[in-house]
């Protein structure tokens, strides 16, 4: 699958950080992970820390798929508001899913520190705007529910927004638990650390097929090598659907631009994360070196050639939206790109095993919270492999609907 268009900022900025060999011989291990993006990296880290013998296969260069295109806003809010998620999965599961995403932000900070890439993570606040006047009632209900469940946020009226920002909106939620990260650097840091502690990482190596039985899994690569493992974890992001019979996700395209270095951020309070209640929505963040990243203009296109053809037009729209928000910040676009992402019916990931195949595990962090979902998946799958019951696993099972 062709996941990206244009030149994703993170990969161009950092270049080729590290390379790994192709697999050239048969192997035996406890767990083989298919996917060398941020999901596979976090899983490899957690498993290696638990002394689980792990092999990772990535068909591209490490972090060369959707991870390189991620804008990497870290928020506990998922695309489905808590008030709506309660209706879909029940209050207990909905609140717990939000809590897990909130806690995952701190865990991203911890692993970034541990693997030596702490400079590429920052804690942030987050502004969620009411895009229309008639969205205010729902935002108020969302605020009251989150506040009652212990989340740290404020409800901002129109005047309070204008005092802090160079724009206004009918209302907004201002959350104090958020962050931003360079997912490309984080993935490489995690893999370097895992490799030093015993994980075997292979890029440019594709899993062609597998066979599973009650004793384990045999994976055959595109070069004919075989890996014999007790378990296989599918962490190949949006390409994992190629390996699964069930239709779990609707594919979309999202577009992004990165500015040249900015001299100031006039009117951008605390350089917080910004997103809105419209669907699809525009989202914004800054980078540590002083750029702005703006994403959105999502559409239903999942054909690479059509996505490529729309990139310039979408980038121009995103640039205009930024100028509407921040008329006093001159914006010159340095990078423009697009990537494939997926949506589930409730906005939650799938972390489970394939039906009737308990040796094939899934870590599918679909939606706008892929990195925080990947933290949750890494913990749940580690606990499963260590035979430690985790009650949170039921929230993300395949048959939850």
TrEMBL record:
This is FAD-dependent oxidoreductase. Gene3D superfamilies: D-Amino Acid Oxidase, subunit A, domain 2, FAD/NAD(P)-binding domain. InterPro entries: FAD-dep_OxRdtase (IPR006076), FAD/NAD-bd_sf (IPR036188). Residues 31-384 form the FAD dependent oxidoreductase domain. GO terms for cellular component: cytoplasm. It comes from Herpetosiphon geysericola.
């Amino acid at each position: 699958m062709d996941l990206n268009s244009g030149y994703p900022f993170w990969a161009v900025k950092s270049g080729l950080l590290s390379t790994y060999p192709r697999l050239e011989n048969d192997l035996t291990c406890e767990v083989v992970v298919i996917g060398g993006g941020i999901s596979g990296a976090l899983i490899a880290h957690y498993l290696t820390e638990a002394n689980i013998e792990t092999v990772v296969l990535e068909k591209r260069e490490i972090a060369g798929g959707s991870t390189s295109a991620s804008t990497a806003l870290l928020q506990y809010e998922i695309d489905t508001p808590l008030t709506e998620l309660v209706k879909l999965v029940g209050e207990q599961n909905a609140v717990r899913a939000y809590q897990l995403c909130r806690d995952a932000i701190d865990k991203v900070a911890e692993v970034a520190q541990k693997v030596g890439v702490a400079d590429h993570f920052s804690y942030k606040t987050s502004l969620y705007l009411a895009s229309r006047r008639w969205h205010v009632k729902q935002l108020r209900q969302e605020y009251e529910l989150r506040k009652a469940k212990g989340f740290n946020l404020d409800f901002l009226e129109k005047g309070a927004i204008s005092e802090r920002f160079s724009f206004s909106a009918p209302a907004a939620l201002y959350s104090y638990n958020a962050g931003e990260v360079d997912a490309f650097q984080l993935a490489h840091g995690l893999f370097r650390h895992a490799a030093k502690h015993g994980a075997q990482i292979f890029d440019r190596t594709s899993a062609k097929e597998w066979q599973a039985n009650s004793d384990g899994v045999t994976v055959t690569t595109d070069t004919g090598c075989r890996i014999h493992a007790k378990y296989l974890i599918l962490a190949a992001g949006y390409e994992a659907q190629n390996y699964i019979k069930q239709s779990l996700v609707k594919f979309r395209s999202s577009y992004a631009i990165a500015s040249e270095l900015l001299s100031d951020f006039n009117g951008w309070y605390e350089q917080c994360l910004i997103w809105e209640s419209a669907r699809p929505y525009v989202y914004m963040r800054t980078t540590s070196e002083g750029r702005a990243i703006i994403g959105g203009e999502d559409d239903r296109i999942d054909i690479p050639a059509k996505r490529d053809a729309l990139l310039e037009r979408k980038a121009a729209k995103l640039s205009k939206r930024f100028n509407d928000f921040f008329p006093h910040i001159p914006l010159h676009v340095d990078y423009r790109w697009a990537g494939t992402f997926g949506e589930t019916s409730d906005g939650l990931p799938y972390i489970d095993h394939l039906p009737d195949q308990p040796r094939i595990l899934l870590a599918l962090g679909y939606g706008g919270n892929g990195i925080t979902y990947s933290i949750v998946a890494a913990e749940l799958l580690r606990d499963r492999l260590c035979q430690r019951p985790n009650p949170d696993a039921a929230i993300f099972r395949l048959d939850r609907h």
